[in-house]
Automatic annotation (TrEMBL):
The keyword Signal applies. Residues 1-24 form the signal peptide. This is DUF3857 domain-containing protein. Residues 67-242 form the DUF3857 domain. Keywords: Signal. Residues 291-364 form the Transglutaminase-like domain. InterPro entries: DUF3857 (IPR024618), Papain-like_cys_pep_sf (IPR038765), TPR-like_helical_dom_sf (IPR011990), Transglutaminase-like (IPR002931). The keyword Transmembrane helix does not apply. It comes from Cellvibrio japonicus (strain Ueda107). Gene3D superfamilies: 2.60.40.3140, 3.10.620.30, Tetratricopeptide repeat domain.
């Protein structure tokens, strides 16, 4: 399984790794006592699946700061699961900068025998990464007879062959041993009983390193055995196993990691990167023509930036082609354009070249993406895995971070993968790390508009329209572009809105647009949903239908199983507007239940319903606030989430209303004579609709004309309506007229 060096320098944009020579031919100097002695002194924990007995690394730096690093690991295997996970060790490396030698690898079997690695169980592989051509390889080896009760040990040596930055040295080291789980199911970091990192460096070298005191890591400096050298040593004991869980903080605060080097400030890194980038900001006649064409059509700064973004999206695809180059230095801008492909630094160099030629201030910027977590940036080093473009605020433009590497990604390509992450603007004047902005919850949204618009027999149909922003737009656009059977996938996905409905139509908008957000629309069909005629029509919707579609809140760990703090970041918003169609005028909406509003430290829910006459409209909004939940508060967060998921349904029942039926019958009457308005006035009074009753009574009197019987009753009804409207004198007068005409009061 794969092995990871803690905080290892990235293998994408800027990759530092190892090259392989061979198994050592001579007996190496061990960093630990012989395996039989280790086994005799070790007392395993019966409850642990595996335990790292010793994790030890020693680095020797010479006067030129070229390093040789020896690493030793011994692991006790105490379960079948651990035996599977540790059955194959894999180390990723970049052969451009270092060599590696596997010095030895042994197994002590449960019966005490020592078995060594076989030559045919060691191999170098080049990862099969689509669109990646680089010097990264993987050293893989498997030990024989790894099973429960075994102890495995191995030791390897790295030797620097080239410097990344001349005259400087830096690296990152973990005290745990990270081992990939079988079948690619994440990683494990087991308990470490003894962990040591030591660096022997010339006395003239001043090392800069982070403080690990909060982890119980001890630090010492003393004279080395080599004259003129000092030995720096960090050590820790009984380091607890690390439980990796979803929703953990991005910071590497859950495990100690040493960042150490000779670089005292970020200015050094910025100048180094600038010296790599600036020589490649060059054009040729072909690129000059493109720039001239842009000038003809793009007149404002904003138009010029968009034109550059459009050009790279249309003409340059993402390919990492840096075999024999080390992965740090970009190609010339005009070469990237001519080739029609380039990685992040190539595309950023081309974009900056174009922008500057168009009069726009712009620089490349190094980024540590979220795939790296949130590295400790207190010690300057080349700790970045991506490059984008920074356009500072200037006349006609606000401050902007532009990433062109996505495939048909919404302008300016600013994605969740870089939000809130460390960035270093590549400029010889840069002195410090900056942090990329975090977008508010309102910019990460999914908005559902659902309209029930057709009743046909027992069938009910509805159209839906989903608008997206931020991470939801990025994710669903990408799924639509890359999923092989995308129509089938999206039909299954959106069938979760109502599991009882079929999706009869599904389409999208703006899937390839750089300027408009991706949208999904379609129709839902509910068979045998209504009895028709006088039967009630029942509708329902719950906020959780949105939650289950767009979030994973129902998959939270139970409090007893949670081992790490929880972070909801960034925040996001889920919104819905649902229009429930009224069957006809004889049915009235009855709200049988409605969802509750919520406002706590984690969530805000607002829900309302309005009878619009032709339909009943429900509006819902859920905001998940960006919060960091300490482990001590996780139970409260979990219970508040269960309350959210238990939010009541909105249940709207359109039921036959006799009064509405009567009114509908009256309204449909073709003969609008005095008798019609008398009946209408009586209906309104029965319903307490006194203003409407008065209007109808006045029209009844007017329509009665010379019809004495109708005229008498019309005045009587008018008197009643006037009385209900507190027009008492007029009411008395109307009653007297009715009585005078022979109406019996």
């Amino acid at each position: 399984m794969s092995v990871y060096r803690f905080l290892a320098l990235p293998l994408g944009l800027l990759c530092l790794g190892l090259g392989l020579q061979a198994l050592a031919n001579t007996a190496p100097q061990r960093l630990a006592e012989p395996l039989p002695a280790l086994a005799k002194a070790f007392k395993p924990d019966a409850g642990a699946g595996a335990e790292v007995i010793v994790r030890r690394t020693h680095i020797q730096l010479d006067e030129a700061l070229m390093g040789t690093s020896h690493s030793y690991v011994a692991v006790y295997i105490n379960s079948d699961e651990a035996a599977r996970d540790y059955s194959q060790i894999s180390v990723s490396f970049n052969s451009f900068y270092e060599d590696i030698t596997l010095e030895f690898a042994n197994v002590r079997t449960p019966d005490g025998k020592i078995d060594s690695i076989k030559a045919d169980a060691t191999q170098i592989q080049s990862p099969n990464d689509e669109n990646f051509y680089h010097d990264r390889k993987e050293l893989l080896f498997s030990l024989p007879n790894v099973r429960k009760g075994s102890i495995i040990e191995f030791q390897y040596r790295y030797t620097d062959t080239r410097k990344i930055i001349d005259g400087q040295w830096f690296d990152s080291f973990g005290f745990h041993w990270w081992e990939g789980r079988a079948a690619g199911q994440g990683s494990r970091a087991d308990t470490v009983h003894t962990a040591e990192i030591s660096i022997s460096a010339p006395e003239s070298v001043q090392l800069v390193f982070n403080d690990l005191g909060r982890f119980g890591i001890r630090h010492q400096v003393r004279a080395d055995q080599r004259p003129g050298y000092r030995l720096w040593r960090w050590s820790g004991n009984q380091l607890a196993a690390v439980d990796l869980q979803s929703g953990m903080p991005r910071e590497h605060s859950y495990t100690p990691g040493l960042r150490v080097g000779t670089i005292a400030d970020w200015h050094t890194i910025a100048r180094w990167a600038d010296q790599l980038v600036e020589p490649h900001l060059v054009t040729d006649s072909k690129l000059d023509k493109v720039i001239a064409d842009i000038r003809k059509t793009a007149k404002t700064p904003a138009d010029k930036v968009k034109a550059v973004y459009q050009l790279l999206q249309d003409k340059v695809r993402y390919v990492f082609a840096h075999v024999g180059r080390g992965g740090y230095e970009p190609h010339d801008a005009h070469e990237v354009f001519t080739n029609g492909y380039g990685d992040c630094k190539d595309q950023s160099v081309l974009a900056v070249t174009l922008l500057r030629q168009l009069g726009i201030q712009a620089n490349t910027a190094l980024i540590a993406t979220r795939s790296m977590g949130l590295p400790d940036m207190s010690v300057p080093a080349v700790t970045f895995d991506h490059m984008i473009v920074h356009i500072p605020a200037q006349p006609g433009l606000t401050d902007m971070w532009m990433d062109t590497t996505g495939d048909s990604t919404l302008f300016p390509g600013f994605s969740l993968g870089i939000e809130g992450q460390p960035a270093l603007v590549v400029d010889e004047q840069t002195r410090a790390i900056t942090t990329l902005p975090l977008r508010p919850a309102s910019e990460h949204y999914a908005r559902l508009n659902l309209v029930f618009d057709k009743l046909e027999g027992q069938r009910v149909e509805a159209r839906f329209h989903v608008e997206l922003g931020g991470m939801f737009e990025d994710r669903l656009r990408s799924l639509w572009q890359l999923t092989p059977e995308r129509d089938k996938y999206f039909r299954e996905l959106f069938s979760h809105i109502y599991s009882s409905a079929d999706i009869s139509e599904l389409s999208t908008r703006h899937a390839d647009s750089l300027w408009q957000g991706f949208e999904i629309q379609g129709r839902l069909v509910f068979e045998q949903a209504w009895g028709g005629g006088d039967a009630p029509l029942n509708y329902g919707f719950n906020l959780t239908q949105l939650i289950y579609l767009f979030s994973d809140l129902r998959n939270l760990h139970k409090p007893a199983d949670r081992k790490q703090p929880y972070v909801n970041e960034p925040g996001y918003s889920l919104q819905a507007q649902i229009d429930f169609l009224r069957p006809d005028q004889t049915h009235q909406a009855r709200v049988k239940s409605q969802g509750q509003n919520i406002d706590n430290a984690y969530y805000q829910v607002n829900q309302s319903g309005t009878d619009k006459g032709t339909h009943y409209q429900v509006e819902q909004s859920l905001t998940l606030k960006p919060v960091r939940v300490a482990l001590a508060d996780y139970a409260d967060f979990y219970h508040k989430t269960q309350e959210l998921l238990g939010n009541r349904d909105w249940t709207i029942s359109y039921q036959l209303d006799t009064a509405a039926t009567e009114l509908h019958t009256l309204q449909q009457t073709g003969n609008k004579d005095s008798g019609h308005y008398i009946a209408l006035a009586k209906h309104h009074m029965k319903q307490g609709q006194y203003r409407e009753a008065l209007d109808a009574a006045e029209r009844a009197v007017k329509q009665a004309g010379g019809q004495k019987n109708h005229q008498a009753e019309a005045y009587y009804v008018l008197g009643l309506a006037q009385g209900y409207n507190n027009r008492l004198e007029e009411s008395d007068a109307a009653f007297k007229k009715a009585e005078a005409m022979g109406f019996s009061l």
